[in-house]
Please model this.
Amino acid sequence: MTPARWMKVALVALFVAAIGGFFALGGQHYLSLAAVKANRGALLAYADAHLVRALAIAFVVYASAVAFSLPGGLVLSLAMGFIFGRWIGTVLVVAAATVGATLVFLAARYVFADAARSRLGAIGARINAGFTANAFSYLLFLRLVPLFPFFLVNLAPAFTSIPLSTYVAATFVGIVPGTFVFVNLGQTLGRIDSLEGLVSGETLAAFGLLGAFALLPVLLRRMRSRRTGGAQ
Model:
């Protein structure tokens, strides 16, 4: 087996081991609303006494959760708002989520992208070309509008030819609005009893409107292209 093949196997094994270890050690119980609320006094006390260390730990935990596609991202966002406040919490979550998403994107591209593209053939090539041509707008739409799971939006672009810089920029910008909403809600953690219905219909509609604006450049380019074609 070639070194490259070994590396791919090792990455897959690490991913599987991380997810398996998370559930085997009861990680889903620690990353729960009840657990955070039960330990909020200790969390606040630790952050007050060791702010820099607390920020570093929070960054690593959040980035790792995203990189390994672990459940609990919403609870972590609420916790960051509760512990660090809306502004520091938002910056922390956006930075950590972007790093985590970039890591899983690079890993998926390295391990699976070539094989997936070869199997999809001509159809995959057309999809890839269409997505890549408007990659920033499409990915920004997917980040802004909460239609698909976050981990899926992290992985899917890895099978296209989207440049890394475009992926990082669209991810960073696209997750800011939603992150701010949940981190801001985290400041009232003591009054949150359930993760259901946290976001109002008006907020979801606003996300949808932002997503529509993200696709506006694509629509304008297509209209311009049709006019140019018609003129010829």
Remarks:
- The mean pLDDT is 83.
- The two ends are 55 Å apart (CA to CA).
